[in-house]
Amino acid sequence: MTREARDQGIASHAFVLDTLARSDVGALKHLAELLLPEIGSIEVVSSRTGLVMLPFIDTVLNTAFHLGEVLVAEAHIRLGDHDGLDGYGAVTGRDLEQAMAMAIVDAALAAGIQAARIGDFLSAQAARQAEEDTALLRKVEATRVKMETF
């Protein structure tokens, strides 16, 4: 993570990847398109779809097991003009363009390219995601059955 990214209040690489993975797909691809002219040459290390195991914790026995498999699209790029900095993207589903857009934004942030614009994008997307999460939790809470009331 660059100093510019930290100055924009971007907490961690995990936050960046989590937020980008759940970002609005159209907005993410548009941002990546805007960043491409400044990035320069890109080496595509990998661009693929595949299945990954979904880990889950049994809350009764507190043991981990694999719930099943999830299809993911993954992209890994290296910026040739910026000391070989890497970018990574992985999303559920098979949208390789979305994964590549995520990797481009990740690499641009690592290189300090348009850190303010990326920081604003991440802030807006994180706020939208928080609102969606809150709405979902409210719906779940409305259906909760309290066994003590039976």
UniProtKB/TrEMBL annotation:
Tree of life domain: Bacteria
Keyword field: Lyase
The keyword Lyase belongs to this UniProt entry's keyword annotation: yes
GO molecular function, one term: lyase activity
Pfam families named among the record's database cross-references: PhnG
Protein name listed in UniProt: Phosphonate C-P lyase system protein PhnG
Organism the protein comes from: Mesorhizobium vachelliae
